[in-house]
Amino acid sequence: MPRAYLVRKLKLVIFCCIVFILLYGGNILRQAIRDRKCSEEESKFLMDELCHNYSTHAAAGNMCPALCTFKKLKYNKCTNYRGGKKVLIAQCDGVCKEGSTVKAVIKSKHPKEEFRFEPLDLEKHANGSLTQMGYKMAHNIFKSLLDSQMLEERDKISDIFSFLWSLDVEQYKRENRDFKSAEMTAMQNIWGLINQDEYLFMKVHQKQSFVPKMYGTCGFYYVMEYAPPGDILDPQFFSGSGSSFEERAKIAIDILDIVQSLDYGFYEPVHMCDVKAENFGIGEDQQVKILDSDSLFFHTSMMKNLAQPSCTNHDDCDFFDCRGWCELETGKCTKQRSNNNLQTVCEDILIDKPTNFYAGLLHNPPSEFKEELLPLLEECAFPAHSKGIVRKPTSDDVYWKLHNLLKRIIRES
Fold first, then answer.
1. What are phi and psi of 15, to 5 degrees?
2. Which residues pair with 102 in a beta bridge?
């Protein structure tokens, strides 16, 4: 055997080993960063501080008694920080789900230096209670935030304060009539909650099947349904999820349904700007849920984020996974988004590529469907044979072809 051939083969083996080590090491680093634990001591302190605020009437909400008085909502552990947000896992005994003990998630961006919002400065009487003008000011401020989330049904809401909170404000005032500033406490608590984008979106859109259940609030903290990604949406390196293609196809269909809802189910499109599989989870009803709605933006809000003073290339008009288009003649980002949620989901979740270690959600399809499915996924992720950063939209026709094909695969499996 020629020496040159052996040298080439040895170099190939060494190259493959280096690639393997880099991929494996990168995955370990990614897991370490993503799963870095918050401080247990700090988390317990935050819960103690919250209960202290409840005892002094600075915090209120329907979950405060369960957390602080009856101990029906018990802190279990903390998990990783996401964008400055505290995410704590708790055990909920008969409060979140009547007659059952379930896991729940306690979330808040407070207290965090990055979590800043304008103080709620309302006109008050000398004893701390709101004047009629102060009450009207709060109503108008809260209504403007509510308008950013819903336009079609806002006029049907008779009590904005109670709609945005976990308690009936008037009842809370009656039950705390000896506490003159009870109304102001309610307003401050609501204000601290609705300044958190995730809370506002999920509270307002609880009727959507892909939104985790909102169990309630205490102070600036909100308690939600526990819906972990599981091994299918967040598989471990090498071991994978061990799931069948049929199981993964069902989840893919749920995600496609969410895409359709975000594109067409609201008064204007809602854009996903941080698309990755672990940002979805499986709820108690076995439906796929969106876990991180901080990265969801209504189209009007999205265009404000893309509104640069000027742009010289398309990258200037990007906002994370939401990609814009620069009109070079005017130097302005266009008001029409150049790609949609469907394209991003196909590229970042469904197909195989190096960043997911060639294990997209729809990897290894049944052999009899490969020739039909793989080109369709390619067309979905890279419309019109796009290369690099994709800025072309994926057509609705591709959506329906993919949706119907996955249903057929499940039916015939």
1. -60, -45
2. 92
**DSSP letters spanning 278-293:** GGEEE-TTS-EEES-G
3-state secondary structure of 127: coil
N residues, the chain: 413
Written as one string, the DSSP assignment of 10-62 is HHHHHHHHHHHHHHHHHHHHHHHHHTPPPPHHHHHHHHHHHHHHHHTTS---T
- Distance between CA 326 and CA 324 in Å, rounded? 7
Q: How far apart are CA 225 and CA 284, in angstroms?
A: 8
Q: Chain-centre distance of CA 69, in angstroms?
A: 31
Residue with tokens 């709820």: 283
Q: In whole angstroms, what is the distance from residue 176 CA to residue 191 CA?
A: 19
Mind listing the pLDDT tens digit for each residue in 146-200?
Answer: 988 876 677 788 899 999 999 999 999 999 988 888 999 999 999 999 999 999 9
Q: What is the pLDDT of residues 333-369, one digit of tens each?
A: 875 554 589 999 999 999 988 766 668 999 999 999 9
Number of CB atoms found within 10 A of residue 144's CB:
9
3-state helix, strand and coil shares in percent for the chain, rounded to the nearest 5:
45, 15, 40
One DSSP character per residue, 271-329 reads EESS--GGGEEE-TTS-EEES-GGGEEEHHHHHHHH--S--SSGGGG-BTTB---EETT
Kindly give the interhelix angle for 182-194 and 132-147, rounded to the nearest 10 degrees.
20
3-state secondary structure of 205: coil
